[in-house]
Structure formats: structure tokens, C-alpha cells
Design a protein that fits this description.
By secondary structure, this protein is an alpha+beta fold. It contains 10 helices and 11 strands. The two termini are about 30 Å apart. It binds zinc ion.
């Protein structure tokens, strides 16, 4: 992917973890408070605390760790190639969605992208590398731990810059859904508390975000920003990533939605759908009889 040719966004902010966090296996950092909480939970339920840490590493909800974050300067952001990459991909999604919203007769308000290391507090709760990248509808921000880039290539075996860009574009897709009012409908269904209905709707929500990521990919390809093999990279990533966590802002807890993203085949297919049409209207997973 020729991401160096993409316009860097001004909506990417960065913080680095610090103050009390310490490294654990896999590069995950937990604050001292989280460790104490895990030990307490372990005592109550009689579980080995290390097994809880293992569960967290396995992609469960983020720990309620508290790590102070300190903003770093723009100069530092510019020097970090990963942050530069994120800024350019986000900038490109802004250009594409601004044009598409204009075509649909509305205005695209871009989300903020918060890049962090370790853990961070969001309006939707605490985030860490274990929670995966996610979109918080309440503060309209995408949260992304730079650790995720390594996880994508190592744990999910989906390496490549376009694979990482697909994941970013998928989260941006959730923001598009928020602007379209789809998130709100989803929250309303979730609030009614029928778990089966909620999960079914969650799959459609996720597959639509995959399709929207494909729509962005269509326009990246159209402007010659893709290279041979990029689409395959994206498809591999769409099929491999199963646990980006949707945050349920109203109740303030993270919903582990490993079972609510759709199958690998579905995810790759809807990504391809957006990628081949470039039309957001072709992404109506809610109207589709079979997904
Ligand atoms: Zn998602």
C-alpha cells in the first residue's frame, strides 16, 4: 500500500502509558490496581490469578487498570512511523467518507483516533491492547494500541500494511454507522435485553463495518494507492480478526464479542462486497435476508 502518498489526518491524538504500569508477558501492561483487583477476584472465586491474566491475554475484556496517560508532542508523533501510518490511513478515510457523505447529501464529521500504549481510559471504559482496537460511540473516538500491529501479524497471522489499514477502516466504519444512527438502533435493541437478538444484530453491525472498510479500499485502489497482494492481505485480516471489542457505553462495560462478529467467511465476503462496489448502499447487512 502506498500509504506515504495519503494525506495525514489532524484528528489523531497520542498518549503513552506510564505511571505505575509494568510489562507483562506479551507486552501487556497492567496498573498496580488491576493486579490487586485480580488477586481479590481470585481469592473470592478461588482461581489462580495467573490464569486470569492468561484469560486477559486471550482477548477478553480489558482489565480495569488505571494508567496515567501523558500527551506527547506532535513532533514525537511525526517521528513514530506507526503513528504516521495511522494518521495517513485515517486521513484517507476522511477524504473518502467526506466525498461519499456529500454525495448522499450530508456532512461527514470525522472521529478522533486515540493511539496509546499500555492502557487508557475512554468514555466507554478502560482500554488496553487485550481489548483490541475499538470505537467508542459515546465520545466518537477510535482507540488503538500500537501493540495491535504486532498482534495482527503474529497472533492473527495477518501481516501487512493493508491488513492494518483494513482494521482501522473497519473501526471508522463503526463511526459511519454512528453518524447514520445505526449504532443508536443497535443500542436500543441491546437495551431490550434479548441476547439472541442482540448477537444477531451485532453480527450485522460488524459485517457492515467490514463492508464499509471495503468501500474505503475501493477508493484507495481507484486512486492507485494499493499494491499487488494488498486485497488478499485485507481479506486475510477480515477473516482473522475476531475480537475487536464493541463498548457498550450506556452500561459502561465492555462486551466481549468474539462470537458476534460473524464467521471468517462472512467477514471476508462483506469486505469484498464493499471493495468491489465502492457503494455504501451495497453494505445494507440489516436488509439482507442471508448474511
Ligand atoms: Zn467492529
Amino acid at each position: 500500500m502506498r500509504w506515504g502518498d495519503m494525506r495525514p489526518s489532524d484528528n489523531v491524538e497520542q498518549s503513552s502509558g506510564g505511571g505505575g504500569g509494568f510489562p507483562l508477558g506479551g507486552g501487556m501492561r497492567l496498573g498496580g490496581g488491576a493486579i490487586i483487583l485480580i488477586v481479590i477476584v481470585s481469592l473470592i472465586f478461588g482461581i489462580n490469578p495467573l490464569s486470569i491474566l492468561g484469560m486477559l491475554e486471550g482477548g477478553g475484556p480489558p482489565p480495569p487498570a488505571q494508567t496515567q496517560t501523558a500527551p506527547t508532542s506532535q513532533t514525537q508523533a511525526a517521528q513514530n512511523p506507526q503513528v504516521d501510518f495511522v494518521r495517513r490511513v485515517v486521513g484517507d478515510t476522511e477524504d473518502v467518507w467526506t466525498a461519499l457523505f456529500k454525495q448522499m447529501g450530508s456532512r461527514y464529521e470525522p472521529p478522533k483516533m486515540h493511539v496509546f500504549q499500555g492502557s487508557v481510559r475512554s468514555t466507554c471504559g478502560m482500554a488496553s491492547a487485550a481489548s483490541g482496537p475499538f470505537y467508542c460511540p459515546a465520545d466518537q473516538k477510535v482507540y488503538l494500541d500500537t501493540e495491535f500491529f504486532q498482534q495482527l501479524s503474529q497472533r492473527f497471522r495477518a501481516p501487512g500494511d493493508f491488513a492494518a489499514a483494513y482494521v482501522i477502516a473497519h473501526e471508522i466504519g463503526h463511526h459511519v454507522q454512528n453518524l447514520q444512527g445505526t449504532m443508536e438502533k443497535f443500542e436500543a435493541t441491546a437495551a431490550r435485553g434479548d441476547p439472541r437478538q442482540r448477537n444477531a444484530m451485532s453480527v450485522r453491525l460488524e459485517l457492515q463495518a467490514d463492508c464499509y472498510a471495503g468501500v474505503w479500499g475501493f477508493y484507495a485502489a481507484k486512486r492507485n494507492l494499493l499494491e499487488p497482494g494488498d486485497v488478499e492481505e485485507g481479506l486475510r485480516a477480515a477473516a482473522a480478526v475476531g475480537d475487536d471489542a464493541i463498548q457498550k457505553s450506556t452500561r459502561g462495560y465492555v462486551v466481549p464479542d468474539a462470537f458476534t462478529h460473524g464467521s471468517a467467511e462472512q467477514r471476508a465476503r462483506w469486505f469484498r462486497q464493499g471493495m468491489s462496489t465502492g457503494d455504501p448502499r451495497s453494505c445494507n447487512t440489516f436488509a439482507a435476508k442471508d448474511i
